[in-house]
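Sorry, I am new here, but would you mind making up a protein's amino acid sequence and the tokens describing how it folds?
***
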Amino acid sequence: MKGQNKLFIAIIISLILGVGAGAIVHLQYPESADGFSKNIKLLGTVFIRLVQMIIAPLVFTTLVVGIAKMSDMKMIGRVGSKAMLWFITASLVSLLIGLVLVNWMEPGKVTNLDLSDTSSASEIMDKTKEFSLADFVNHVIPKSLFEAFATNEVLQIVVFSVMFGVALANMGETYTKPIIKAFDIAAHAILKMVGYIMWVAPLGVFGSIAAIVATKGFSIFTVYAIYLRDFFFALAVLWLVLCLVGYLILGNRLFELLKRIKEPLLIAFSTTSSEAVFPKLVEELERFGCNNRIVSFILPLGYSFNLDGSMMYMTFASIFIAQIYGIDMSLGQQIIMLLVLMLTSKGIAGVPRASLVIIVATCAMFGIPPEGIALILPIDHFCDMGRSMTNVLGNALATSAVSKWEGQLDNHGGEL
């Protein structure tokens, strides 16, 4: 956690230095602003390219492992199917809430950046600006896995990963255990790389902010304030929906559950990691009265398949970046984006900022400059606090609901 705090401090310092450098150029040397902006934002390009480098292997390994391990559900039967029904429904609802509210509130319309402000945006737009249902179908089936990896064709990687994972799940543990373990180790190694790459983020933030302030002045901070306000409003709506569904299933015991998990919620909020509270959450759910076998099965699965806060953030952030660059997406394109995010996000663990990798990949697919992710990095820590806490709430509700449906919820629980 100390490392995360140091990274946050480094990003804030980079933000301040970037504002200072950009302001000096904007106010004192306006004639040099364009040249300065073009060169300094290369720091942001370095960061984005590092993130793009790990997208394909990360999606491939996490999806294969997640699906291959689902063969365990055959032993669980009804519990597994009910859990997956909850996960899929909750993910779709979370993505949809983010999509609807970001289109309604339009936080990115406060300012408008030119597509020329990004080093590779024009190339991306030429390739994908007419992304339609027909293009979607053409992008789904890979001609070659290696070609898909080389070009970061996320949908094609997803298709191959799903088929490969299903094949492994049906071959029997005797044959597949070593290869699943190898992929699991690889997935964890790549997630470790995410942590390393995030230490380049301060340079990316410095370059991106300095470039924008140099050419646009201080309007970007109005955007930040509106972005945070609108995101936390959307998060409050998601909490209301989750708690309403929880009340319909658990009744008044919902309030007891919220009291039980208040400490895990606060820890997740302060550390920006839903994984940090996993042991404590297991303990509190068992004290609440959930069957320990159901907890031990659903909760780990939920950490890969039921990250409600992260789901909502992905659509919110992606459309926000599109708005800030003045890119209008049709309803059909946005629905396709929602489905793409639904697939590509599965298997990504509750690691701080891992969802940014998926957002970068999705933005590139739909003609949205992925460099835009660097613009929201300075305030992503605050967004991460809210979405991590929401992830914990969603998994606690899922575990409690399935326990109730299975008649395995002790109505008395432990002592508060």
